[in-house]
Design goal:
This protein is an alpha/beta fold. The chain has helices at 10-16, 33-42, 60-67, 83-92, 125-136, 154-161, 171-179, 218-230, 236-239, 247-253, 267-278, and strands at residues 29-30, 50-54, 72-77, 97-101, 117-122, 147-153, 180-188, 193-194, 201-208. Strand 3, helix 4 and strand 4 form a beta-alpha-beta unit. The mean pLDDT is 96. Bound molecules: S-adenosylmethionine.
């Protein structure tokens, strides 16, 4: 038994620190330590990595990450009420848990962590999508992170791993799959959380690829994909008209049908069009 295993159950921690869940902070806590350890294991081999955890709350996943052997964890939490509970975990594993009170959207993780870095989080859904897009669109590739293990609403998770020809396929799938391997690692019913959210959730695991699957300039690709899916019911030649006066010729030149719709275009088609526009 390690000192982390000697910490009190999460229900007692929540009662002791009066951590009633706040809707405004998207607080749906995971209190089952077997479950949080299982999520931590989805993050891969942790013993040679620093882990960035966003939104640790009372620390269920934090405890999982530490007991699964993370070298160091940086836990970034916006709710000051959670800090004393997290400090108890830090005291049980000296030097391995750094707690940062603040907004995950405003911190610089590299000021605190040493690569290789993995990211793990059970986050409010709105912040989660914004952070995911940020992590997928850094100024340079490969990014500072090796993998992302993130809880999402099931519907958002499906959009991240979606294949062409499905309703869920769109900008998020392309951003995620162009430079990462993305899969749904676990599904969780609402009852796994306290309080239970209205919908089911899923853990998505993304591994950064050393290089993009197909060459393209990131900014051009983002412009093409944003335009294509902004008007997803339109044919490509209409949706992409604003990108070039001769867009129809360019679509044909890269083997795409101008009358197709965005959801029919595979990732390599968007990359080919981005290269053509830059060429
Ligand atoms: N990880 C904990 C768990 O699994 O039980 C808590 C999960 S709860 C869904 C989301 C956590 O993110 C809350 O503790 C909330 O206070 C925190 N949070 C919300 N917005 C945040 C932000 N912008 N930056 C950092 N933490 C945030």
């Amino acid at each position: 038994m390690s000192a982390i295993d000697d910490l009190p159950p999460l229900r007692e921690v929540i009662a002791a620190h009066q951590l009633s869940a706040r809707k405004s902070l998207g607080q749906n806590f995971l209190l089952d330590l077997n479950l949080t350890a299982k999520i931590a294991r989805q993050a891969g081999k942790l013993d040679e990595c620093d882990v960035l955890e966003i939104g640790p709350g009372p620390g269920g996943l934090t405890r999982g990450l530490l007991s699964e052997g993370a070298r160091r964890v940086l836990a970034v939490e916006k709710d000051s009420r959670c800090i004393p509970a997290l400090q108890e975990i830090a005291a049980a594993c000296p030097g391995r848990l750094e707690i940062l009170e603040g907004d995950a959207l405003e911190i610089d993780p590299l000021a605190h962590l040493t690569p290789p870095i993995r990211i793990a989080a059970n986050l409010p859904y709105n912040v989660g999508t914004e952070l995911l897009i940020r992590w997928l669109t850094p100024p340079e590739w490969p990014p500072f992170w090796q993998s992302l293990t993130l809880m999402f609403q099931r519907e958002v998770a499906e959009r991240i791993v979606a294949r062409p020809g499905t309703k869920a396929y769109g900008r998020l799938a392309i951003l995620a799959q162009w430079r990462a391997e993305a899969r749904i690692a676990m599904s969780l019913p609402p009852g796994a959380f306290t309080p239970p959210p209205k919908v089911s959730s899923a853990v998505v695991h993304l591994t950064a690829l050393p290089e993009p699957r197909y060459p393209a300039n990131a900014k051009t690709l983002e412009r093409v994909v944003a335009a294509a899916f902004n008007q997803r019911r339109k044919m490509l030649r209409a949706a992409l008209r604003g990108l070039a006066h001769d867009i129809e010729d360019r679509l044909i030149a890269v083997g795409l049908r101008p009358t197709d719709r965005a959801e029919q275009v595979p990732l390599e088609g968007f990359c080919a069009l981005a290269r053509n526009l830059d060429g």
